Amino acid sequence: MVALTVEELTPEHIRFTLSNTTVGYANALRRILISEVPTIAIDMVEIERNNTVLPDEVLAHRLGLIPIYSKRELKYKEECSCSGFCSECSVVFEIDVVHTDDTLRTVSTRDIVCDEEDVIIKSGPVITKLARDQGLKARCIGRKGVGKTHAKWSPVSAISFEYDKDNVRRETNYWFEESIEEEWPGVRQGEANLMQKIDKIHMCVEVVEGGAGPLAVVLEGLRILKEKVATLSSAAETMD
């Protein structure tokens, strides 16, 4: 049975070791974490007023990349029976800023208003800047989605995994003229064993700041992977 041991956990990343597993399992988990763990992101922007320096499509793109975390479970748009958006599949955000001073005015996520207490939007990212008599008014619709549809829904920013730290399987060949130790300082290689079994994978997952926590993302990825394996196993049993 696969075992998971957490070695380091911070608000932004998690380091853990998978035991009794294979490289293929770790890579499947990596792909799921990137593309199939659902999150919330702004998917539709209705701009009523925009006389900033940025065109509508650039503003919509920037708004879509803002990290959003929702404690409330939403339906996918495809699963909802509403014609546009509703409280079961969407979260509504409002932004209305007008600048009347001669100084520059920074518009950030702090200017976005949401009436739902269960929705947390990352505070800080800059959306645009306003000069005198410029303004922005828009309604943004946040929806549930996954990274394979658009990268804005991906909950992770980077994932890495390693195995065979001592390179005993010699899958990495160092080019050298005389001595590996002298030409590759710091490199450590164990005694060669090309048949060494790989059963421990060290992984590091860095999540998008402002979204779900790293442990929650990894556990959701494992749940999705388990569900996929169960579906495949069930399908295989019904084959003639």
TrEMBL record:
Family statement: Belongs to the archaeal Rpo3/eukaryotic RPB3 RNA polymerase subunit family.
InterPro entries found in the cross-reference section: DNA-dir_RNA_pol_30-40kDasu_CS, DNA-dir_RNA_pol_insert, DNA-dir_RNA_pol_RpoA/D/Rpb3, RBP11-like, RNAP_Rpo3/Rpb3/RPAC1, RNApol_insert_sf, Rpo3/RPB3_RNA_Pol_subunit
Domain of life of the native organism: Eukaryota
One of the record's GO cellular component terms: RNA polymerase II, core complex
Any one GO molecular-function label of the UniProt entry: DNA binding
GO terms (BP aspect): transcription by RNA polymerase II
Coiled-coil boundaries: none
Keywords: DNA-directed RNA polymerase, Transcription
UniProt-listed Pfam families: RNA_pol_A_bac, RNA_pol_L
Span of domain DNA-directed RNA polymerase RpoA/D/Rpb3-type: 13-235
Cross-referenced HAMAP family: RNApol_arch_Rpo3
Protein name: DNA-DIRECTED RNA POLYMERASE II THIRD CHAIN
